Amino acid sequence: MHRILNFILLLMAVSIFMATPSMAQKKKLPKKPPRNILMSDLAEPDEVAGKSAVDRPGREVEETYSAGGVMSNGPHGLDVSHYQGRIDWTQVAKDDHASYVYIKASEGESNVDDMYLYNFRAAKRAGLKVGSYHFFRANVKPEIQLKNFLSMVTVKQQDLLPLIDVEAIPSGMSHDRFRQVLNDFLKLVTREFGKRPMIYTGKNFYNKIFAGHGYGKYKFMIACYTIDEPVLNNNDDFVIWQYTSTGRAKGIRGNVDISRIRGRHSLKEIYY
């Protein structure tokens, strides 16, 4: 009887051992399948989101912003694109940050902002001072870019100087060649509007491309998201400081770029 019991226990132990995978067997177990890849994981940046893909985080504009030290005297303004979605301009007009508004119209050869016409017309109806901007691409002929800009913009309807967003250099293009193409474009815009455009760029980009290269005749909006006003090389002057890309304003859901007129300058200086 004792032997039979021992034999039964031995059989049970063998069965349990055979049912348990060895370490080698465990290593051979298939891994969990990878998660499904979403289209959002592969989607490229929207070319007309914000000002452009290149002017979102990662551009050469300063990326640190603090609310301290920026709310000194001087009219504040916004710049928007379809990135902000549908804007309630009657509410925007009640906001202290909306003494002036720049609206994206176009970019490069053929990109246009599909909210431009709505934004421009609604902002004008709300009584705001409104201007338009074009994102400059140096690998596109100046004549083609001007045609694209004018396909959206009616010159005589502008309240503010045209604004040219300049912050991207094509790979392999020299700085001298970049400036040459830009200068040709700026001359065309000046001829069309009868006044020189204002140039938008980041502090670092200005110091690298513009400082010391004869751009003193142009007004500048400088983006630099810091507590204190930026200081340009050679102490070059500029009219507008864009101090945040994560601001808030009435009538706009989410973030918006906010800037202000600096010190001795006035809003009238950018009137068209």
Structural commentary:
This protein is α/β, with parallel strands linked by helices and 272 residues long. The protein has one domain: Glycosidases (TIM Barrel, Alpha-Beta Barrel). The protein is built from eight helices and nine strands. It has an eight-stranded mixed beta barrel. Strand 8 and strand 9 form a beta hairpin. Helix 6 packs across helix 7. The longest helix is centred in the last third of the chain and has 19 residues. The protein starts with a helix and ends in an 11-residue tail after the last strand.
Topology:
Elements: H1 2-19, H2 23-27, H3 39-42, E1 76-80, H4 89-92, E2 100-107, E3 111-112, H5 116-125, E4 130-135, H6 142-152, E5 163-165, H7 175-193, E6 198-202, H8 203-210, E7 220-223, E8 240-247, E9 256-261
Parallel strand pairs: 1-2, 2-4, 4-5, 5-6, 6-7, 7-8
Antiparallel strand pairs: 1-9, 2-3, 8-9
Helix pairs in contact: 6-7
